[in-house]
């Protein structure tokens, strides 16, 4: 075996302290002999040295070494910002040139890393180039790393984390694919709330960033709300600008902002921004007016009071004008009915007004009845629960409120047992669809009977429940901008008492009240979509007609048709896999909807101008170099020692570490015992002979 390296090692026969002590003693004796110039002194010193060396037991070690190649990492950025302009072509050319140059350098192992941020999570995280490099080096010892060469536009978003870590790969060289001095207009959302109160405004702060714009200039920005026609705004450039946005309904409100193109543009995707604001109601204000005490009055109160989101104001008219019992006024403890405050000054503050078995008694003047009718037409909500008096001459139908009610009395009252049923239309309406105990496929309901129903005529709107002989029992209607529900019976309380098993009175009243107050989940003709990770869940409800395919248009403008699966009459759903974040538009030709998926304003596209500022601290800290491909092309590569500069003008250095693996070892005693004995005796005999001369 021809050794690659030879070394000498020691295996002392005595502990090292003893060997050292003997060596010191031998040195002193030899020095004394030599100082006295005794005959044979040098041979005596040689004998002592041989004795000490024999005790140290030297060995010759010959190693067979296998050199190990140094590792160079080539990190190629193929994220979304790298698709701009000439960057893809420059990237490919640089990769090919590096492959050729690295192939000519012996002793190198090339690790290729491709950085991509495709998918929903990747766009939000941005370009994680340093994380990909560290992952590639997880099994590579630091003393084998020759260097890292990154081909990127410089928009890397994990540099700070890399600098803060204990292990920074280097030398870190950078080849920039963009053009020096690039400029791009972009729209930045500075602050935006996640929630907003319904019927109030939220403040969105945005900024149009444009390095090429003149100081004091303004940019046109279009603002769209829930897909409606965009409103133009004038926004000062390079300044934060606050915009007040109204929240008009509960649930998600989608806000779109789009800035006009600037004088210098790299990409238009970052000129747009999307915000999703969830509209919530502060508290629902409900006014319940009971005409007279009756068995079902507490049912309404208990159900409404059990909802923590409802502020209930309840009045029962216990002492109407015609009641004369001789009780002195000073002895009455009843609260005066604040008619003017409720029905004139504060009427618009209520989200829902409920009349429970109310009849005309001279308490509410006709003017206030007209106010309630106008309140409904202007967007208010009214629920009328009719008792026998609705069929009499004291009926609310004979007031201005009758103009907005969906049913008029015939004068007849049915007083016999019947089980309320869900109509065919009610099976499609979210207020009554799927109520527990309704019976399947037109079967007999399992809930208890009612014993009173008011006959009605001139019914308009949607009859979702029927009573005796299929007569209308619960009617829902839209009047102007408002909504009205009409329950033609006062026996709902039988369900709450559990008569004949009871029924879903709480769920029915909750759904009815929330439909009246425009709860998005209870819209009867609606197209909605929900983002669940990388899936888009489509939900379509309709009262009439068949379900049509839904056209789904992605953020890039490409669309596809999706067939819905009917899970109930008039109710279809579908699930779509998506792989791109942004705003999706859905339409079935009748209804449209918007849904935000993933990162609405991805970090990757927030700034696409090529820059050396992000990676320069890392490159300098590791002794690496940085070069623009458009100006200087691919630099020369050379091997450098670990203590030398790793970059210069027109070249990048790769460290030569000289790492190896020992594949064989041969150990030979440098002073075998027999040889040591012969040499020692020879030295002593020669010294004795010299003394005798």
UniProtKB/TrEMBL annotation:
<dbReference type="InterPro" id="IPR029062">
    <property type="entry name" value="Class_I_gatase-like"/>
</dbReference>
<keyword id="KW-0812">Transmembrane</keyword>
<feature type="transmembrane region" description="Helical">
    <location>
        <begin position="670"/>
        <end position="688"/>
    </location>
</feature>
<keyword id="KW-0472">Membrane</keyword>
<keyword id="KW-1133">Transmembrane helix</keyword>
<protein>
    <submittedName>
        <fullName>Membrane protein</fullName>
    </submittedName>
</protein>
<feature type="transmembrane region" description="Helical">
    <location>
        <begin position="42"/>
        <end position="61"/>
    </location>
</feature>
<feature type="transmembrane region" description="Helical">
    <location>
        <begin position="13"/>
        <end position="35"/>
    </location>
</feature>
């Amino acid at each position: 075996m021809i050794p690659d390296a030879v070394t000498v090692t020691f295996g002392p026969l005595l502990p090292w302290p003893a060997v050292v002590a003997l060596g010191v003693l031998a040195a002193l004796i030899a020095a004394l002999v030599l100082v006295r110039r005794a005959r044979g002194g040098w041979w005596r010193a040689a004998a002592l040295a041989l004795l000490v060396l024999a005790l140290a037991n030297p060995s010759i070690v010959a190693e067979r070494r296998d050199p190990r190649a140094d590792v160079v990492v080539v990190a190629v950025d193929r994220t979304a910002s790298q698709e701009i302009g000439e960057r893809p072509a420059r990237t490919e050319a640089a990769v090919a040139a590096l492959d050729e140059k690295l192939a000519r350098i012996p002793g190198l192992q090339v690790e290729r890393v491709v950085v991509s941020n495709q998918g929903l999570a990747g766009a939000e995280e941005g370009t994680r180039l340093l994380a990909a490099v560290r992952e590639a080096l997880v099994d590579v010892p630091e003393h084998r790393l020759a260097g890292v060469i990154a081909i990127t536009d410089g928009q890397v978003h994990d540099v700070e984390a890399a600098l803060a870590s204990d292990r920074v790969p280097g030398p870190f060289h950078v080849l920039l694919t963009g053009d020096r001095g690039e400029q791009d207009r972009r729209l930045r959302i500075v602050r935006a709330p996640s929630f907003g109160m319904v019927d109030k405004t939220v403040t969105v702060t945005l900024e149009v960033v444009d390095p090429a714009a003149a100081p004091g200039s303004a940019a046109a920005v279009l603002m769209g709300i829930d897909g409606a026609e965009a409103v133009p705004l004038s926004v000062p450039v390079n300044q934060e600008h606050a915009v007040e946005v109204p929240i008009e309904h509960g649930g998600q409100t989608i806000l779109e902002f789009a800035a006009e193109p600037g004088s210098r543009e790299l990409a238009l995707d970052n000129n747009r921004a999307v915000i999703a604001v969830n509209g919530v109601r502060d508290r629902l204000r409900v006014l319940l007016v009971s005409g007279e005490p009756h068995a079902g009055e507490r049912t309404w109160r208990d159900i409404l009071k059990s909802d923590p989101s409802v502020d209930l104001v309840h009045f029962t008219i216990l002492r109407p004008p015609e009641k004369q019992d001789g009780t002195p006024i000073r002895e009455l403890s009843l609260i005066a009915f604040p008619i003017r405050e409720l029905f004139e000054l504060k009427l618009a503050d209520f989200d829902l007004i409920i009349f429970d078995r109310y009849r005309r008694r001279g308490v509410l003047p006709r003017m206030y009845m007209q106010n309630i009718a106008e309140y409904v037409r202007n967007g208010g909500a009214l629920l009328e629960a009719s008792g026998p008096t609705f069929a009499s001459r004291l009926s609310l139908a004979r007031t201005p409120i009758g103009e907005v009610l969906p049913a008029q009395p015939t004068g007849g009252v049915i007083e016999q047992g019947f089980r309320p049923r869900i109509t065919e239309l009610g099976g499609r309406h979210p207020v009554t669809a799927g109520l527990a105990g309704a019976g399947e496929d037109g079967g007999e309901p399992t809930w208890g009977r009612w014993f009173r129903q008011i006959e009605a005529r001139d019914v308009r709107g949607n009859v979702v429940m029927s009573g005796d002989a299929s007569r209308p029992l619960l009617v829902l209607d839209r009047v102007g901008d408002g909504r009205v529900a009409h329950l033609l019976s006062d026996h709902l309380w039988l369900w709450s008492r559990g008569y004949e098993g009871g029924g879903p009175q709480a769920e029915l009243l909750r759904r009815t009240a929330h439909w009246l107050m425009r709860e998005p989940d209870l819209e009867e003709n609606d197209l909605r979509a929900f983002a669940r990770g990388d899936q888009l869940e489509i939900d379509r409800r309709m009262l009439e007609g068949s379900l049509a395919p839904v056209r789904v248009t992605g953020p890039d403008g490409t669309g596809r048709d999706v067939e819905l699966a009917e899970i109930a009459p008039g109710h279809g759903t579908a699930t779509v896999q998506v792989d791109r974040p942004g705003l999706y538009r859905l339409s079935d030709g009748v209804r449209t909807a918007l849904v935000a998926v993933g990162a609405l304003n991805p970090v990757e596209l927030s700034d696409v101008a090529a820059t050396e500022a992000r990676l320069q601290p890392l490159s300098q800290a590791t002794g690496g170099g940085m070069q623009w491909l458009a100006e200087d092309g691919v630099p020369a590569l050379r091997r450098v020692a670990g203590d030398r500069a790793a970059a210069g003008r027109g070249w990048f250095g790769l460290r030569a570490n000289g790492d190896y693996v020992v594949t064989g070892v041969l150990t030979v005693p440098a002073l075998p015992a027999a040889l040591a004995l012969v040499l020692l005796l020879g030295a002593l005999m020669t010294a004795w002979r010299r003394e005798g001369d």
